[in-house]
Design goal:
single chain, disordered C terminus, 116 residues, 6 helices, 0% strand
């Protein structure tokens, strides 16, 4: 489909590329004008620095799922956190989660999956 990109799970996962993808998605969700005034890096806090609203955070999660697929399982990852952790979350934590999730073979992440 035009306009949609999907992560190739066979491609090497690099944090810099994921950070660039996340920056782009943040800009799409909260607005290019707002993001152009802020430098987004791994230390950028979603709430304190970007003042992202909860509905925007949900939209970001949906964009991540579309782009990277179900392998990153954004909703399940967020569900493991306390509210204080979500409020204090930094872009780098999200990038680390995506990078780690995409580095795990698909059947190794499933119960009863890959065995050695």
């Amino acid at each position: 489909m035009p306009g949609q990109t999907f992560h190739d799970p066979t491609a090497a996962v690099h944090a810099d590329g994921v950070l660039a993808d996340v920056r782009t998605m943040i800009a799409e969700v909260i607005g290019e004008d707002y993001v152009s005034e802020a430098e987004i890096d791994a230390d950028t806090a979603f709430y304190a620095d970007l003042e992202i609203e909860s509905i925007e955070f949900i939209a970001l999660g949906e964009a991540l799922q579309v782009h990277y697929g179900d392998g990153i399982d954004f909703p399940a990852w967020i569900a493991t956190m306390e509210v204080d952790e979500i409020i204090a979350m930094r872009v780098g934590q999200l990038v680390d989660h995506i990078t780690a999730s995409l580095s795990v073979p698909a059947d190794a992440s499933r119960p009863g999956g890959a065995r050695g």
